[in-house]
Write a structure and sequence with these properties.
Length: 123
Amino acid sequence: MAVWLTARYLLAIRKLGEKNNGGEPDLKVLREFCHDVVALRRGDHSAARLKIEQERLERDRAEAEAAKKHLEDKELTGAQKRARMLELFGLSSEPAAAASADGKSNPVKPGQPESGPIQPDQT
């Protein structure tokens, strides 16, 4: 539709240019034409985004259904179900690595200077 409308507008602009003595179309009319084409293209882009979002939603639903069916399997123990759920969500079954092996959190990396205590803003 946008291609057809653009072609029609180009023909209309040519006719307007021929009507004027200098052969130049009126800039106000050109702006109106451009406004219409922009609105049409914006609608095309919105429709394309909506289609992509719908496809993503359908894929997510199918994945969720597959995960639900797998978790409802009566042969899995509670621990197996938990491990499978963590695997499906891409999480590790290990506890979060918030602390290092020696019990300190956020150790200073080699070559990184240690920062001093936080000072109040003097301004």
